[in-house]
Write a structure and sequence with these properties.
Elements: H1 2-11, E1 14-15, E2 31-32, H2 41-64, E3 67-75, E4 78-93, E5 97-98, E6 101-102, E7 108-114, E8 123-127, E9 130-145, E10 159-161, E11 164-168, H3 169-172, E12 180-185, E13 191-194, E14 204-206, E15 213-217, E16 221-227, E17 230-236, H4 244-262, E18 270-276, E19 286-291, E20 294-299, H5 307-318, H6 335-352, H7 358-374, H8 381-386, H9 395-414, H10 421-430, H11 439-447, H12 456-460, H13 469-472, E21 478-481, E22 488-491, H14 497-505
Parallel strand pairs: 3-12, 17-18, 18-20
Antiparallel strand pairs: 1-2, 3-4, 4-9, 5-6, 7-9, 8-9, 10-11, 11-15, 12-14, 13-15, 16-17, 19-20, 21-22
Helix pairs in contact: 4-5, 5-6, 6-9, 7-9, 10-11
Length: about 500
Protein backbone atom coordinates (compact mmCIF):
# COMPACT_ATOMS: atom_id res chain seq x y z
CA UNK A 1 0.00 0.00 0.00
CA UNK A 2 2.82 2.41 0.84
CA UNK A 3 4.62 1.53 -2.39
CA UNK A 4 1.50 2.15 -4.47
CA UNK A 5 0.99 5.51 -2.79
CA UNK A 6 4.59 6.44 -3.54
CA UNK A 7 4.16 5.52 -7.20
CA UNK A 8 1.09 7.72 -7.44
CA UNK A 9 2.97 10.67 -6.00
CA UNK A 10 5.93 10.20 -8.34
CA UNK A 11 3.70 9.90 -11.40
CA UNK A 12 1.55 12.88 -10.46
CA UNK A 13 -1.52 10.66 -10.08
CA UNK A 14 -4.11 11.62 -7.49
CA UNK A 15 -6.92 9.11 -7.11
CA UNK A 16 -9.70 9.15 -4.58
CA UNK A 17 -9.80 6.09 -2.39
CA UNK A 18 -6.57 4.49 -1.34
CA UNK A 19 -7.97 3.45 2.00
CA UNK A 20 -9.53 0.15 1.07
CA UNK A 21 -8.09 -2.92 -0.55
CA UNK A 22 -8.72 -3.39 -4.27
CA UNK A 23 -12.32 -4.13 -5.17
CA UNK A 24 -13.04 -5.30 -8.69
CA UNK A 25 -16.63 -4.07 -8.50
CA UNK A 26 -15.87 -0.49 -7.55
CA UNK A 27 -13.16 1.75 -8.97
CA UNK A 28 -12.07 5.22 -7.91
CA UNK A 29 -14.60 7.61 -9.36
CA UNK A 30 -12.14 10.35 -10.17
CA UNK A 31 -8.47 10.52 -11.05
CA UNK A 32 -6.61 13.71 -11.77
CA UNK A 33 -3.28 14.25 -13.47
CA UNK A 34 -2.94 10.66 -14.68
CA UNK A 35 0.13 10.54 -16.88
CA UNK A 36 -1.23 7.68 -19.00
CA UNK A 37 -4.36 9.56 -20.08
CA UNK A 38 -3.91 10.72 -23.66
CA UNK A 39 -0.12 10.75 -23.41
CA UNK A 40 2.39 9.74 -26.06
CA UNK A 41 3.64 6.17 -26.29
CA UNK A 42 7.14 7.28 -25.34
CA UNK A 43 5.87 8.84 -22.13
CA UNK A 44 3.91 5.68 -21.37
CA UNK A 45 6.99 3.51 -21.84
CA UNK A 46 9.00 5.79 -19.57
CA UNK A 47 6.36 5.52 -16.91
CA UNK A 48 6.22 1.74 -17.35
CA UNK A 49 9.97 1.57 -16.91
CA UNK A 50 9.75 3.70 -13.78
CA UNK A 51 7.05 1.43 -12.41
CA UNK A 52 9.21 -1.64 -12.97
CA UNK A 53 12.15 0.00 -11.20
CA UNK A 54 10.00 1.08 -8.28
CA UNK A 55 8.37 -2.31 -7.96
CA UNK A 56 11.68 -4.13 -8.08
CA UNK A 57 13.21 -1.72 -5.58
CA UNK A 58 10.20 -2.16 -3.33
CA UNK A 59 10.59 -5.93 -3.36
CA UNK A 60 14.28 -5.67 -2.50
CA UNK A 61 13.52 -3.21 0.29
CA UNK A 62 10.82 -5.50 1.62
CA UNK A 63 13.17 -8.48 1.70
CA UNK A 64 15.98 -6.63 3.42
CA UNK A 65 13.72 -5.14 6.09
CA UNK A 66 12.29 -8.43 7.32
CA UNK A 67 13.17 -9.67 10.81
CA UNK A 68 13.56 -13.45 11.10
CA UNK A 69 11.73 -14.55 14.21
CA UNK A 70 11.50 -17.91 15.94
CA UNK A 71 8.82 -18.51 18.57
CA UNK A 72 9.53 -21.52 20.76
CA UNK A 73 7.88 -23.01 23.79
CA UNK A 74 10.57 -24.41 26.11
CA UNK A 75 8.10 -25.04 28.94
CA UNK A 76 4.29 -24.90 29.23
CA UNK A 77 2.91 -21.43 29.86
CA UNK A 78 5.91 -19.57 28.45
CA UNK A 79 7.26 -18.73 25.03
CA UNK A 80 10.72 -17.65 24.02
CA UNK A 81 11.31 -15.34 21.08
CA UNK A 82 14.49 -14.93 19.07
CA UNK A 83 14.58 -12.17 16.44
CA UNK A 84 17.36 -11.60 13.94
CA UNK A 85 17.09 -7.94 12.99
CA UNK A 86 17.65 -6.62 9.46
CA UNK A 87 19.71 -3.69 10.76
CA UNK A 88 21.47 -2.87 14.04
CA UNK A 89 19.35 -1.34 16.80
CA UNK A 90 19.76 -0.21 20.39
CA UNK A 91 16.17 0.18 21.62
CA UNK A 92 13.02 -1.95 21.76
CA UNK A 93 9.60 -1.31 23.25
CA UNK A 94 6.57 -3.50 23.88
CA UNK A 95 2.93 -2.48 24.04
CA UNK A 96 1.90 -2.14 27.69
CA UNK A 97 -1.81 -1.35 27.35
CA UNK A 98 -4.61 -2.39 25.03
CA UNK A 99 -8.43 -2.34 25.24
CA UNK A 100 -8.34 -1.35 28.89
CA UNK A 101 -5.80 -4.06 29.79
CA UNK A 102 -2.79 -2.57 31.57
CA UNK A 103 0.64 -3.95 32.39
CA UNK A 104 0.85 -6.29 29.39
CA UNK A 105 4.59 -5.74 28.97
CA UNK A 106 5.27 -6.79 32.56
CA UNK A 107 5.24 -10.38 31.27
CA UNK A 108 8.38 -9.80 29.16
CA UNK A 109 11.65 -10.79 30.82
CA UNK A 110 15.18 -12.17 30.36
CA UNK A 111 15.72 -9.72 27.49
CA UNK A 112 19.13 -10.07 25.86
CA UNK A 113 20.83 -8.65 22.78
CA UNK A 114 23.99 -9.49 20.83
CA UNK A 115 25.86 -7.91 17.94
CA UNK A 116 26.96 -9.52 14.68
CA UNK A 117 29.97 -11.16 16.33
CA UNK A 118 27.85 -12.61 19.14
CA UNK A 119 29.11 -10.11 21.71
CA UNK A 120 26.73 -9.12 24.51
CA UNK A 121 25.25 -5.70 23.68
CA UNK A 122 24.64 -4.98 27.42
CA UNK A 123 20.90 -4.43 27.70
CA UNK A 124 19.24 -2.53 30.52
CA UNK A 125 15.53 -2.24 31.28
CA UNK A 126 14.59 1.43 31.39
CA UNK A 127 10.88 0.97 32.17
CA UNK A 128 8.14 -1.63 31.80
CA UNK A 129 8.48 -2.99 28.28
CA UNK A 130 11.36 -0.59 27.43
CA UNK A 131 14.83 -2.00 26.76
CA UNK A 132 18.07 -0.27 25.68
CA UNK A 133 21.51 -1.60 24.81
CA UNK A 134 24.91 0.05 24.97
CA UNK A 135 26.07 -1.51 21.70
CA UNK A 136 24.40 -2.00 18.35
CA UNK A 137 22.55 -5.32 18.34
CA UNK A 138 21.37 -7.56 15.49
CA UNK A 139 19.84 -10.38 17.54
CA UNK A 140 17.49 -10.19 20.51
CA UNK A 141 16.01 -12.93 22.68
CA UNK A 142 13.46 -12.75 25.47
CA UNK A 143 10.83 -14.76 27.33
CA UNK A 144 7.14 -14.00 27.80
CA UNK A 145 5.13 -15.61 30.60
CA UNK A 146 1.63 -16.36 29.34
CA UNK A 147 0.22 -18.66 32.00
CA UNK A 148 -2.51 -17.66 34.46
CA UNK A 149 -4.41 -15.23 32.23
CA UNK A 150 -6.96 -12.93 33.83
CA UNK A 151 -10.61 -13.37 32.90
CA UNK A 152 -10.97 -9.80 31.67
CA UNK A 153 -7.86 -10.01 29.51
CA UNK A 154 -8.20 -13.24 27.53
CA UNK A 155 -9.86 -11.92 24.35
CA UNK A 156 -7.38 -9.04 24.05
CA UNK A 157 -3.92 -10.42 24.87
CA UNK A 158 -1.81 -13.54 24.36
CA UNK A 159 -2.24 -16.46 26.74
CA UNK A 160 -1.44 -20.16 27.18
CA UNK A 161 -3.58 -22.51 29.26
CA UNK A 162 -3.81 -26.29 29.22
CA UNK A 163 -3.60 -27.70 25.70
CA UNK A 164 -4.06 -24.45 23.80
CA UNK A 165 -3.33 -20.76 23.60
CA UNK A 166 -3.72 -17.58 21.60
CA UNK A 167 -0.60 -15.73 20.44
CA UNK A 168 -1.13 -12.11 19.44
CA UNK A 169 1.94 -10.46 17.99
CA UNK A 170 0.71 -7.02 19.07
CA UNK A 171 1.93 -7.81 22.60
CA UNK A 172 4.60 -10.44 21.82
CA UNK A 173 6.73 -8.62 19.26
CA UNK A 174 8.50 -5.28 19.88
CA UNK A 175 6.67 -2.39 18.27
CA UNK A 176 9.89 -1.51 16.44
CA UNK A 177 9.55 -4.62 14.23
CA UNK A 178 7.18 -3.88 11.36
CA UNK A 179 7.68 -6.90 9.06
CA UNK A 180 8.80 -10.35 10.08
CA UNK A 181 9.16 -13.93 8.93
CA UNK A 182 8.30 -16.33 11.74
CA UNK A 183 8.40 -20.04 12.44
CA UNK A 184 7.15 -21.90 15.50
CA UNK A 185 8.82 -24.57 17.63
CA UNK A 186 6.03 -25.72 19.93
CA UNK A 187 5.54 -28.52 22.40
CA UNK A 188 5.27 -32.04 20.99
CA UNK A 189 1.89 -32.58 19.39
CA UNK A 190 1.03 -28.88 19.15
CA UNK A 191 0.16 -27.24 15.85
CA UNK A 192 -0.57 -23.68 14.76
CA UNK A 193 -3.42 -22.13 12.75
CA UNK A 194 -3.76 -18.59 11.44
CA UNK A 195 -5.25 -16.42 8.72
CA UNK A 196 -1.69 -16.23 7.36
CA UNK A 197 -0.48 -18.91 4.95
CA UNK A 198 2.87 -20.52 5.64
CA UNK A 199 5.47 -21.24 2.97
CA UNK A 200 6.85 -24.69 2.18
CA UNK A 201 9.24 -24.37 5.13
CA UNK A 202 6.46 -23.59 7.58
CA UNK A 203 7.35 -19.91 7.92
CA UNK A 204 4.78 -17.14 8.00
CA UNK A 205 5.40 -13.67 6.58
CA UNK A 206 3.68 -11.04 8.72
CA UNK A 207 3.51 -7.47 7.42
CA UNK A 208 1.09 -6.15 10.06
CA UNK A 209 2.14 -7.57 13.45
CA UNK A 210 -0.62 -5.65 15.23
CA UNK A 211 -3.18 -7.77 13.38
CA UNK A 212 -1.42 -11.15 13.61
CA UNK A 213 -3.24 -13.82 15.64
CA UNK A 214 -2.19 -17.48 15.95
CA UNK A 215 -4.11 -20.28 17.63
CA UNK A 216 -1.79 -22.96 18.98
CA UNK A 217 -2.53 -26.25 20.67
CA UNK A 218 -3.28 -29.92 20.29
CA UNK A 219 -6.05 -31.37 18.13
CA UNK A 220 -7.01 -28.20 16.27
CA UNK A 221 -9.67 -28.88 13.62
CA UNK A 222 -10.08 -26.68 10.55
CA UNK A 223 -12.55 -26.55 7.69
CA UNK A 224 -12.80 -24.05 4.84
CA UNK A 225 -15.11 -22.69 2.19
CA UNK A 226 -14.93 -19.99 -0.48
CA UNK A 227 -17.82 -17.53 -0.69
CA UNK A 228 -17.92 -15.04 -3.55
CA UNK A 229 -14.15 -15.30 -3.85
CA UNK A 230 -13.46 -14.87 -0.12
CA UNK A 231 -11.83 -17.80 1.66
CA UNK A 232 -13.36 -18.53 5.06
CA UNK A 233 -11.69 -20.81 7.63
CA UNK A 234 -13.20 -22.05 10.88
CA UNK A 235 -10.82 -23.55 13.44
CA UNK A 236 -12.05 -25.32 16.58
CA UNK A 237 -10.16 -26.26 19.72
CA UNK A 238 -11.76 -28.30 22.48
CA UNK A 239 -15.04 -30.21 22.71
CA UNK A 240 -18.18 -28.46 21.40
CA UNK A 241 -21.81 -29.48 20.79
CA UNK A 242 -21.26 -28.77 17.09
CA UNK A 243 -18.78 -29.76 14.42
CA UNK A 244 -16.53 -27.39 12.55
CA UNK A 245 -18.59 -27.86 9.37
CA UNK A 246 -21.72 -26.69 11.20
CA UNK A 247 -19.95 -23.62 12.54
CA UNK A 248 -18.63 -22.94 9.04
CA UNK A 249 -22.17 -22.97 7.66
CA UNK A 250 -23.30 -20.36 10.19
CA UNK A 251 -20.24 -18.16 9.58
CA UNK A 252 -20.58 -18.54 5.82
CA UNK A 253 -24.18 -17.34 5.85
CA UNK A 254 -23.18 -14.25 7.82
CA UNK A 255 -20.20 -13.60 5.55
CA UNK A 256 -22.51 -13.63 2.53
CA UNK A 257 -24.89 -11.19 4.23
CA UNK A 258 -22.11 -8.69 4.82
CA UNK A 259 -20.63 -9.11 1.36
CA UNK A 260 -24.06 -8.15 0.05
CA UNK A 261 -24.45 -5.34 2.58
CA UNK A 262 -21.14 -3.62 1.86
CA UNK A 263 -20.55 -4.63 -1.74
CA UNK A 264 -16.91 -5.04 -0.72
CA UNK A 265 -14.83 -8.18 -1.09
CA UNK A 266 -12.48 -8.74 1.83
CA UNK A 267 -8.86 -8.55 0.66
CA UNK A 268 -7.64 -11.40 2.88
CA UNK A 269 -8.77 -14.79 4.05
CA UNK A 270 -11.19 -14.58 6.99
CA UNK A 271 -10.56 -16.91 9.92
CA UNK A 272 -12.89 -17.75 12.81
CA UNK A 273 -11.12 -19.28 15.83
CA UNK A 274 -13.30 -20.88 18.50
CA UNK A 275 -11.79 -22.16 21.76
CA UNK A 276 -12.95 -22.70 25.35
CA UNK A 277 -12.56 -19.84 27.79
CA UNK A 278 -9.28 -20.54 29.59
CA UNK A 279 -10.51 -19.12 32.92
CA UNK A 280 -13.75 -18.79 34.84
CA UNK A 281 -15.38 -15.47 34.09
CA UNK A 282 -18.36 -15.37 36.46
CA UNK A 283 -21.56 -14.50 34.62
CA UNK A 284 -19.91 -14.08 31.24
CA UNK A 285 -20.38 -17.09 28.97
CA UNK A 286 -18.22 -15.85 26.11
CA UNK A 287 -15.74 -13.20 25.03
CA UNK A 288 -14.66 -12.23 21.54
CA UNK A 289 -12.31 -10.00 19.61
CA UNK A 290 -11.87 -9.31 15.90
CA UNK A 291 -8.35 -8.36 14.92
CA UNK A 292 -7.25 -7.93 11.33
CA UNK A 293 -8.90 -10.74 9.39
CA UNK A 294 -9.32 -12.99 12.44
CA UNK A 295 -12.29 -13.43 14.78
CA UNK A 296 -11.45 -15.03 18.12
CA UNK A 297 -14.39 -16.45 20.09
CA UNK A 298 -13.71 -17.82 23.57
CA UNK A 299 -16.73 -19.44 25.20
CA UNK A 300 -17.88 -21.92 27.82
CA UNK A 301 -18.89 -25.06 25.86
CA UNK A 302 -21.28 -26.12 28.63
CA UNK A 303 -23.30 -22.93 28.09
CA UNK A 304 -23.61 -23.44 24.33
CA UNK A 305 -26.71 -25.61 24.33
CA UNK A 306 -28.52 -23.47 21.74
CA UNK A 307 -25.29 -23.21 19.83
CA UNK A 308 -26.68 -22.27 16.43
CA UNK A 309 -28.54 -19.22 17.73
CA UNK A 310 -25.68 -18.25 20.01
CA UNK A 311 -23.10 -18.48 17.24
CA UNK A 312 -25.32 -16.48 14.90
CA UNK A 313 -25.81 -13.68 17.44
CA UNK A 314 -22.11 -13.45 18.36
CA UNK A 315 -20.67 -13.77 14.87
CA UNK A 316 -23.19 -11.33 13.37
CA UNK A 317 -21.53 -8.64 15.44
CA UNK A 318 -17.91 -9.77 15.35
CA UNK A 319 -17.74 -10.61 11.65
CA UNK A 320 -18.98 -7.16 10.64
CA UNK A 321 -15.76 -5.87 12.21
CA UNK A 322 -13.89 -7.59 9.38
CA UNK A 323 -15.27 -4.74 7.28
CA UNK A 324 -15.74 -1.96 9.84
CA UNK A 325 -13.26 -0.88 11.04
CA UNK A 326 -10.72 -3.49 9.91
CA UNK A 327 -11.05 -2.98 6.14
CA UNK A 328 -11.09 0.80 6.50
CA UNK A 329 -7.88 2.79 6.97
CA UNK A 330 -9.31 5.72 8.88
CA UNK A 331 -7.72 7.75 11.64
CA UNK A 332 -9.27 8.76 14.95
CA UNK A 333 -11.72 7.40 17.47
CA UNK A 334 -15.05 6.42 15.96
CA UNK A 335 -16.07 3.55 18.21
CA UNK A 336 -19.61 4.97 18.28
CA UNK A 337 -19.94 3.79 14.67
CA UNK A 338 -17.97 0.56 14.49
CA UNK A 339 -19.38 -0.65 17.83
CA UNK A 340 -22.74 1.07 18.39
CA UNK A 341 -23.94 1.04 14.78
CA UNK A 342 -22.54 -2.47 14.34
CA UNK A 343 -24.69 -3.69 17.24
CA UNK A 344 -27.79 -2.39 15.51
CA UNK A 345 -26.89 -3.77 12.08
CA UNK A 346 -26.07 -7.15 13.66
CA UNK A 347 -29.46 -7.12 15.41
CA UNK A 348 -31.25 -6.66 12.07
CA UNK A 349 -29.02 -9.33 10.51
CA UNK A 350 -29.96 -11.84 13.20
CA UNK A 351 -33.65 -11.11 12.54
CA UNK A 352 -33.21 -11.46 8.78
CA UNK A 353 -31.58 -14.84 9.35
CA UNK A 354 -34.61 -15.96 11.37
CA UNK A 355 -32.80 -16.34 14.68
CA UNK A 356 -35.10 -13.80 16.36
CA UNK A 357 -38.37 -12.13 15.35
CA UNK A 358 -39.39 -8.47 15.18
CA UNK A 359 -40.80 -8.56 18.71
CA UNK A 360 -37.39 -9.58 20.05
CA UNK A 361 -35.80 -6.73 18.08
CA UNK A 362 -38.06 -4.30 19.98
CA UNK A 363 -37.42 -6.08 23.30
CA UNK A 364 -33.66 -5.84 22.75
CA UNK A 365 -33.84 -2.13 21.97
CA UNK A 366 -35.99 -1.63 25.07
CA UNK A 367 -33.36 -3.32 27.23
CA UNK A 368 -30.64 -1.18 25.66
CA UNK A 369 -32.66 1.96 26.42
CA UNK A 370 -32.93 0.87 30.06
CA UNK A 371 -29.14 0.69 30.26
CA UNK A 372 -28.89 4.09 28.62
CA UNK A 373 -31.29 5.93 30.99
CA UNK A 374 -29.78 4.24 34.06
CA UNK A 375 -26.28 5.54 33.26
CA UNK A 376 -26.52 9.27 32.45
CA UNK A 377 -23.70 10.50 30.28
CA UNK A 378 -23.13 14.11 29.30
CA UNK A 379 -20.64 13.28 26.55
CA UNK A 380 -21.27 13.27 22.83
CA UNK A 381 -20.72 10.01 20.96
CA UNK A 382 -17.45 11.35 19.59
CA UNK A 383 -16.26 12.32 23.08
CA UNK A 384 -17.39 8.96 24.43
CA UNK A 385 -15.32 7.18 21.80
CA UNK A 386 -12.21 8.98 23.02
CA UNK A 387 -12.74 7.70 26.59
CA UNK A 388 -14.24 4.31 25.81
CA UNK A 389 -11.81 2.27 27.89
CA UNK A 390 -11.88 4.58 30.92
CA UNK A 391 -15.65 4.60 31.47
CA UNK A 392 -17.35 1.90 33.60
CA UNK A 393 -20.34 1.82 31.23
CA UNK A 394 -19.53 3.03 27.76
CA UNK A 395 -22.31 4.71 25.85
CA UNK A 396 -20.61 4.21 22.52
CA UNK A 397 -22.36 0.83 22.61
CA UNK A 398 -25.79 1.64 24.02
CA UNK A 399 -26.28 5.20 22.82
CA UNK A 400 -24.53 4.40 19.54
CA UNK A 401 -26.94 1.51 18.95
CA UNK A 402 -29.99 3.67 19.72
CA UNK A 403 -28.75 6.47 17.45
CA UNK A 404 -28.30 3.91 14.65
CA UNK A 405 -31.92 2.85 15.26
CA UNK A 406 -33.13 6.44 14.98
CA UNK A 407 -31.06 7.02 11.85
CA UNK A 408 -32.47 3.92 10.21
CA UNK A 409 -36.05 4.89 11.06
CA UNK A 410 -35.59 8.43 9.79
CA UNK A 411 -33.90 7.58 6.50
CA UNK A 412 -36.47 4.87 5.74
CA UNK A 413 -39.30 7.32 6.42
CA UNK A 414 -37.84 10.28 4.56
CA UNK A 415 -36.92 8.20 1.49
CA UNK A 416 -40.23 6.36 1.34
CA UNK A 417 -38.42 3.08 2.00
CA UNK A 418 -35.89 3.49 -0.81
CA UNK A 419 -32.94 3.98 1.55
CA UNK A 420 -31.83 2.32 4.78
CA UNK A 421 -28.83 2.45 7.06
CA UNK A 422 -27.55 -0.56 5.14
CA UNK A 423 -27.25 1.55 1.99
CA UNK A 424 -24.83 3.85 3.81
CA UNK A 425 -22.45 0.93 4.37
CA UNK A 426 -22.38 0.19 0.66
CA UNK A 427 -21.78 3.87 -0.05
CA UNK A 428 -19.01 4.00 2.54
CA UNK A 429 -17.10 1.31 0.66
CA UNK A 430 -17.99 2.42 -2.86
CA UNK A 431 -16.70 5.93 -2.10
CA UNK A 432 -13.33 4.43 -1.20
CA UNK A 433 -12.62 7.06 1.43
CA UNK A 434 -9.09 8.44 1.29
CA UNK A 435 -6.45 6.60 3.29
CA UNK A 436 -5.82 7.98 6.77
CA UNK A 437 -8.79 10.33 6.46
CA UNK A 438 -10.40 11.64 9.62
CA UNK A 439 -12.80 8.86 10.57
CA UNK A 440 -15.55 10.99 12.09
CA UNK A 441 -15.61 13.40 9.17
CA UNK A 442 -15.65 10.56 6.64
CA UNK A 443 -18.39 8.54 8.38
CA UNK A 444 -20.59 11.57 9.05
CA UNK A 445 -20.13 12.65 5.45
CA UNK A 446 -21.53 9.32 4.30
CA UNK A 447 -24.38 9.32 6.82
CA UNK A 448 -25.47 12.80 5.80
CA UNK A 449 -25.03 12.25 2.06
CA UNK A 450 -28.80 11.81 1.82
CA UNK A 451 -30.30 15.36 1.86
CA UNK A 452 -33.01 14.37 4.32
CA UNK A 453 -30.34 13.39 6.88
CA UNK A 454 -28.56 16.74 6.90
CA UNK A 455 -28.00 17.91 10.47
CA UNK A 456 -28.58 14.45 12.01
CA UNK A 457 -24.97 14.11 13.15
CA UNK A 458 -24.91 17.57 14.72
CA UNK A 459 -27.82 16.62 16.97
CA UNK A 460 -27.12 13.00 17.82
CA UNK A 461 -23.38 12.38 17.24
CA UNK A 462 -21.46 15.61 17.68
CA UNK A 463 -23.45 17.02 20.60
CA UNK A 464 -24.45 15.59 23.96
CA UNK A 465 -28.17 15.69 23.17
CA UNK A 466 -30.08 13.44 25.54
CA UNK A 467 -32.10 10.76 23.75
CA UNK A 468 -35.81 10.90 24.53
CA UNK A 469 -37.21 8.05 22.53
CA UNK A 470 -40.65 8.37 24.12
CA UNK A 471 -41.11 11.62 22.20
CA UNK A 472 -39.41 10.63 18.96
CA UNK A 473 -40.72 7.12 18.21
CA UNK A 474 -44.48 7.80 17.81
CA UNK A 475 -43.79 9.45 14.44
CA UNK A 476 -42.61 6.05 13.22
CA UNK A 477 -45.52 4.04 14.60
CA UNK A 478 -43.82 2.96 17.84
CA UNK A 479 -44.47 3.68 21.49
CA UNK A 480 -42.06 3.44 24.41
CA UNK A 481 -43.17 3.13 28.01
CA UNK A 482 -40.25 3.41 30.45
CA UNK A 483 -42.33 4.03 33.59
CA UNK A 484 -42.07 0.45 34.84
CA UNK A 485 -39.16 -1.76 35.80
CA UNK A 486 -38.48 -2.49 32.14
CA UNK A 487 -39.05 -0.25 29.15
CA UNK A 488 -41.70 -1.56 26.79
CA UNK A 489 -41.20 -0.80 23.12
CA UNK A 490 -44.31 -1.65 21.10
CA UNK A 491 -45.98 -1.07 17.77
CA UNK A 492 -48.70 1.61 17.95
CA UNK A 493 -52.30 0.39 17.73
CA UNK A 494 -53.26 2.77 14.94
CA UNK A 495 -50.75 2.79 12.14
CA UNK A 496 -51.06 4.81 8.97
CA UNK A 497 -49.99 3.30 5.65
CA UNK A 498 -46.59 4.96 5.73
CA UNK A 499 -45.82 3.62 9.20
CA UNK A 500 -46.96 0.13 8.23
CA UNK A 501 -44.63 0.15 5.25
CA UNK A 502 -41.71 1.37 7.35
CA UNK A 503 -42.15 -1.20 10.12
CA UNK A 504 -42.74 -4.04 7.67
CA UNK A 505 -39.38 -3.22 6.09
CA UNK A 506 -37.88 -3.89 9.51
CA UNK A 507 -39.63 -7.25 9.85
CA UNK A 508 -42.97 -6.31 11.43
CA UNK A 509 -45.90 -8.57 10.63
CA UNK A 510 -49.46 -7.99 11.86
Amino acid sequence: MRLKSGIRRLLGVRCLGTALANNSKSRPKRCQGTALQGGAKTQSFRILGLLIVLLCFGKVAARTNVSRVTVSMPVPGEIRVEAQLPSPSRSWSFRNAYAGVLGIAERVGDFRATNTSGQDARVTKRAVGEFRSELDATTITYAVKLSEPRATDVPHVSWLAGDRGILMFADLIPQDIETLSVDFKLLTGWIVESSFISDKNGRYTVTEPLDAVFLVGRLLRKTSNTIDGVVLDVVLSGAWPFKEAEALKVAGTILQKYLDLTGFKLPDKATIMIAPLPVTTGKSEWKAETRGSTVVLLANPDKFKSWRNQLTVILSHEMLHLWVPNSLKLEGDYDWFFEGFTLYVALLTVRELGTIDFKEVLNTLGRVYDVYISHPDEKSLIEGSETRWTSPVTNVYVKGMLVAFLYDLKIRKESGGRLTLGHRYRELFSRRVAANANANEAIIGVLESAPAMSGFARVYIESSTRLELEQVLPAYGLTLDSSGKKSQLRVSRDLNDEQKQLLRSLGYRN
